[in-house]
Amino acid sequence: MKKRIAIGERDGGLSENRLFLAENLPPSLHDLEEKLIICYRRIMLVNKARCERITIDIDLNCSVPDRATRYGQMAIIEIKTAGKPDSSVIASVLSDLGIKKLSFSKYCLGISELGRGVKTNLMKIKKREIMKSLNRQNRLLLRG
C-alpha cells in the first residue's frame, strides 16, 4: 500500500517529512537516512474501461549531496493493467515503433551512477541496454 504526500520543489527532503514518516512507517524504519534524491515529472493516463493505467516519467534527475546526474532526454513508460501489459494498445504501438521492454529501477539506475562503494556489476548491463535504446529509439523506454 502506498501513502503519498505532496512535496514542493524546495522541499528539504527526508528531514522535513519526519512527521509523515513517523505516522506511516513501522518503528524499525525510523532511522532511515537520505541516500539518493530522485526527481521526475509524471504524466498518468487512465483507461477505466480497460482497467489500464500508463505512467510516463520525464526529466529524471538523481542526486546525492555532492553530485547529480540527469536523464533529461529519456521518457520512461510503464503500463499497468488488470490483464497482460502486452495486450495494451500502447504496448502494441510502442512495439510497432521498435521500442522494446526493459525492466529497471530508477533507484538502481541512480545509485549505480552516484553511489560510492556500491557494487554496480548487475546494473552495468542494464545501463548499457538503456544507453543503446536511448541512442537508437528517440529516447523512449518502456519499462516492463
Structure, briefly:
With 144 residues, the protein is an alpha+beta fold. It has helices at residues 18-24, 89-96, 106-114, 121-136, and strands at residues 37-47, 52-64, 67-81, 140-143.
Word description of this protein:
By secondary structure, the chain is α+β, with helices and mostly antiparallel strands. Helices cover 28% and strands 30% of the residues. It has 4 helices and 4 strands, in the order αβββαααβ. A 4-stranded mixed sheet has the order 1-2-3-4, with helices on both faces. The longest helix has 16 residues, at 121-136.
List the helices and strands and how they pair.
Layout: H1 18-24, E1 37-47, E2 52-64, E3 67-81, H2 89-96, H3 106-114, H4 121-136, E4 140-143
Parallel strand pairs: 3-4
Antiparallel strand pairs: 1-2, 2-3
Descriptive labels:
4 strands, 28% helix, four-stranded mixed sheet, single chain, 144 residues, 4 helices, alpha+beta
Strand order of the biggest β-sheet = 1-2-3-4
Taking pLDDT < 50 over at least 5 consecutive residues as the criterion, the unreliable ranges are 138-142
User: Roughly how many Å is the radius of gyration?
Assistant: 17 Å
**Helix share, percent:** 25-40%
* End-to-end CA span: 20 Å
| SSE-based structural type | alpha+beta
Distinct helical segment count: 4
Task: Tell me the major beta sheet.
Answer: 4 strands, mixed
- Compute the number of strand runs: 4
Coarse morphology:
globular
- Mean pLDDT equals 80
What string, H for helix and E for strand, traces the elements in order? HEEEHHHE
Oligomeric description of these chains: single chain
- State which percent range the strand residues make up: 25-35%
